[in-house]
Amino acid sequence: MTEATTRPVTLPLTRERPFDPPDALGLWRDEDPIRPLAYPDGHQGWLVTGYAAARAILADPRFSTRIELLHTPLPQRAMQFRNTLRRPGFFLRLDPPDHTRYRRLLAGQFTVRRMKGLEPRIEEITRDHLDAMERAGAPTDLVRAFALPIPSLVICELLGVPYADREKFQRDSAVLLSLNSSVEQIEAAMNDLLDYLDDLVRRKRAEPDDDLVSGLATETDLTDEELAGVTTLLLIAGHETTANMLGLGTFALLRNPEQLAAVRDNPEAADHAVEELLRYLTVIHIGPLRAALEDVEIDGRLIRAGESVTISVAAANRDPERFPEPDQLDVARPASGHLTFGHGIHQCLGQQLARTEMRIAYPALLRRFPGLRLAVPAEEVPMRTDMAIYGVHRLPVTW
Ligand code: HEM
Q1: Of 79, 157, 281, 314, which has fewest CB within 10 angstroms of its CB?
Q2: How far apart are CA 156 and CA 150, in angstroms?
Q3: Which string of DSSP letters, residue by residue, matches 167-209?
Q4: How far is the CA of 365 from the centre of ligand 1 (A)?
C-alpha cells in the first residue's frame, strides 16, 4: 500500500476503447485492487477492481445491498437511490431474511421446465425478427431490429405482459437506466411503470393465465404492491441487459472476424462464446454496490461498518490473475467464473434465460447474414457510457 493508493479516486465512466473498461480501473487494479473512493455526497468508501476481492465481497453476508445504507458513486442518481428504488418487491435491494423470502418464491416460478419450454419460442421469435430484417432490407439498426425486441418479447411472454405495451415500458426503463435522467424524470417513469403493472397484477389475479405473474399471483402470499414491484424489477432486468449483450456482442464480433467465424460456423462453440462475451464485455457498467454492516478486513484493507463499496465487475473480469490475457476476446477459452451475473445470494435470477437467448440469437444472426458488417465507421457507433447498462445505442449494419 503506497501513498498513491491511499488517496481517494473518483469513479471514471468514459472509456478509451469501446470494448474495454476505463483504463484507470485496470491501472488501479494492478496497483491495489481495493482502494479508497470519493463519493459525490462526501462519503469516503471503496472501489474494488480485483477479481478475488470482488468475489469475496459479493459472497460475504457482512455486506448489504439495502438501498438506505448505500452511497452512490454517481452524482446524478443520488436522490433516486434514497427514494425511488425503495419499493416493496425490489428484492435486489433487500438482505436476508426479506430477500430469501422473495428469492424462494421466484425460484418456484423460474423452473427448469418453464425455461426449457421457452427455448422453441426464443428460436421462433429470433427467426421472425431475422425474416423481418430480410424483408425490410439493409441497412438497418440492429438494436431496434434485433437486439432489443428479442429479449423484450421473451420477457413479456414469460411474465405475461402484453408486448403491444412495449413502448411504454421500454421508454420508462430507458429513463430509469440513464445516468443523465433527473430525479423528477426517474420518479415519473417509476410511477408510470408501477401504475401500469399494478393494473396488470389486478388483471392476473382476476383471470390467471399460464405466465409467471399469474403463477406468483395465485401460488404465493405476495401483496399486489409487492407483486408489481417484483414484476417491475424483472421487466427492467430482463430486457435491457440481454439486449445490450446482443448489440455490443455483435459489434465486438464484427470487429474480430476470426472470432465471429468461430461462432457462426460451429454451433457447439456458442456456449463457450456466450460466456466469453459476457466476461469480455461486462455490460454492468457500474457496480454492483454494497455497504459494510460491520468492520471487515479484506486483503489487508479495513472496511469499516457503514462504508460503501463499489465493485467494478468490468475490471474484475479483466483481472490477469484470474483470466490469462484478459484483454483478448477468445471465444474458445473457458470463461466461466466471470462475475457478469454477480455472485452470492443476489446472483442473477435470469442468467439461464439470458444465456439461452444469446446462444440462440448470435449464431442465427450470423448464419442468416454471412456478409453482416457495419454500415458506418466503427468510431461512429454511439456507445452507452451514459447508461447503467453499457452497450450500443444503435448499431447500423448492412449485409
Ligand atoms: C446478460 C444479461 C444479464 C446480466 C448481465 C445480468 C446481471 C445481473 C447482476 C450483475 C445481478 C446482481 C446484482 C447485484 O448483486 O447487486 C443481477 C441480478 C438480477 N437479475 Fe440479472 N442480468 C441479466 C439478465 C437478467 C434477466 C433476463 C432477468 C429476468 C428474467 C434478470 C433478473 C435479475 C434479477 C431478478 C436479479 C436480482 C436477484 C436478487 O437480488 O436475488 N437478469 N443480474
Answers
A1: 79
A2: 10
A3: HHHHHHHHHHHBTT--HHHHHHHHHHHHHHHHHHHHHHHHS--
A4: 24
Q: Beta strands of 49-95 (E only): which ranges? A: 63-64
| 343 Cβ inside 6 Å of ligand 1 | no
Kindly give the distance from the C-alpha atom of residue 5 to the centroid of ligand 1, in angstroms, as a whole number. Answer: 32
- Between CA 307 and CA 45 the distance in angstroms is 5
Q: Is the CB of 312 under 6 A from ligand 1?
A: no
Helices (H), the chain: 3-6, 23-31, 51-58, 78-82, 98-107, 112-136, 142, 149-159, 166-177, 183-206, 212-219, 224-254, 257-265, 270-281, 313-316, 351-368
- The yes-or-no verdict on residue 68 having pLDDT over 90 is no
241 lines ligand 1 (CB under 6 A): yes
Encoded amino acid at 113, one letter = R
Question: pLDDT tens, 231-280?
Answer: 988 988 888 899 999 999 999 999 999 999 999 998 778 888 999 999 99
Q: Is the CB of 91 under 6 A from ligand 1?
A: yes
Report field, pTM of the whole predicted structure over 0.85: yes
- The finding on whether 129 has its CB within 6 A of some atom of ligand 1 is no
Backbone angles phi, psi at 46, to 5 degrees: -140, 155
CB-based contact 46:35 (threshold 8 Å): yes
The ligand 1 atom at the shortest distance from the C-alpha of residue 106 is 35
Q: Is 64 in the pocket of ligand 1 (CB under 6 A)?
A: no
Query: 134 CB contacts (<8 Å, ≥6 apart)?
Result: 368
Nearest to 24 by CA among 315, 307, 306, 311: 315
Q: What is the pLDDT of residue 1?
A: 54
Question: Is the CB of residue 115 less than 8 Å from the CB of residue 107?
Answer: no
The residues pairing with 344 across neighbouring beta strands, listed in sequence order, are: none
Is any ligand 1 atom within 6 A of the Cβ of residue 149?
no
d(CA 375, CA 361) in angstroms, rounded, equals 20
Q: How far does the centroid of ligand 1 lie from the alpha carbon of residue 137, in Å?
A: 34
